[in-house]
Amino acid sequence: MASTLNLNCFFFPHDAISYNDFDLEKLKTLGDALFSKDAAIKFCEPFGEMVGHREMLDTVYAPLLEAIPDLERRDTIVMVGEDDKQLRWLGCCGYYTGRLAKPWLDIPATGDQIHMRFHEFYRFDGEKIVEVQAIWDLPEVMMQAKCWPFSPSLGTEWHVPGPSTQDGIHLFEEDNALTAQSHQLVLDMLNSLGNFAEGGVEAMNLDKYWHAKSNWYGPSGIGSGRGIQGFRNTHQEAFLNGMPNRVGDPANGHLFSENNYVGFTGWPGMSMTISGDGWLGIVPNDKPITMRSLDFWRNENGMIRENWVLIDLLHVYRQLGVDVFARVKQLTRNKYR
């Protein structure tokens, strides 16, 4: 087994919320044994911070289940590992789906099946979950409900797939050598990105780490890119140009690995000002902001082949003084539109 964690702990995010029997009261009872009573729950905008799993279920999941009664959860990656601080994490990647039968967070009902990506990280102390960090791709739902509040994405907007190898659910023995190799590959790549300030794009040596046919799966609002040039066109150029003074926060960063998969969470993982032009169409300004990002990588033959990235874009806009949900209301108040 890939982890010494109790199997029930392993399957709470993956199995108990899956399929067609999403029972809120059952989850509360199950969670009593899995979560510490004062677990720190950190969710994306607009949910914020909560204490304990019961508040999380009442605040986040109950309204979602009201809007999507046939809610299902489909995990595509489940992995466990320790970061360099010896903190143990369980990372889950996938999507929620079902028919959006009622409005949710001012997003209008569609009557059709929708999909919403999630990246969720659970930190364990012994057998108890003591922290949750989660980003849901709410803008993805806005797009499907035809109330898109942002500028057009530079990348491809689609239903982002799971691993092309279909091996993201790690319920088998851990290969320690492969785990170490994967961890070092992503760590070296991230460190190499820091060479941009002194040597530009060439100094980052992207082709040393990224497969020629790699896929970068960004959040709705940014989109996906194919290959190194696709990654640069979709995200990196605008990101670097728009925020040249960005500074990483190693204390908040947690990198962990299992076999050929690597996960990273930063809450927040970076601080900056949007002082340049080009990123998401946002006008340059001098407001300091932080950025939350939860990532997964799949490595193949010593190269990065796939990278799933979710950024809490709604939190970015809130820090800039933009109420995205008010804009959604404006877009949907005319019933004839």
In a few lines, what is going on in this structure?
The chain is of the alpha+beta class. Helices cover 31% and strands 33% of the residues. The protein folds into 2 domains: 7-144, Nuclear Transport Factor 2, Chain: A (Roll), CATH 3.10.450; 176-325, Nuclear Transport Factor 2, Chain: A, CATH 3.10.450.
Describe the fold and architecture.
By secondary structure, the protein is of the alpha+beta class. It has two domains: 7-144, Nuclear Transport Factor 2, Chain: A; 176-325, Roll (Nuclear Transport Factor 2, Chain: A). The chain has helices at 7-16, 24-34, 53-67, 138-144, 176-193, 196-203, 206-209, 227-242, 313-319, 324-332, and strands at residues 35-43, 49-51, 72-82, 88-99, 113-125, 128-136, 210-217, 224-226, 247-248, 253-258, 261-273, 288-300, 303-311. Strands 7, 8, 9, 10, 11, 12 and 13 form a seven-stranded mixed beta sheet that branches. The chain has a six-stranded mixed beta sheet with strand order 2-1-6-5-4-3. A hairpin with a 2-residue loop joins β10 and β11. The radius of gyration is 19 Å and the shape is globular. Mean pLDDT is 91; it is low at 1-19. This is Polyketide cyclase.
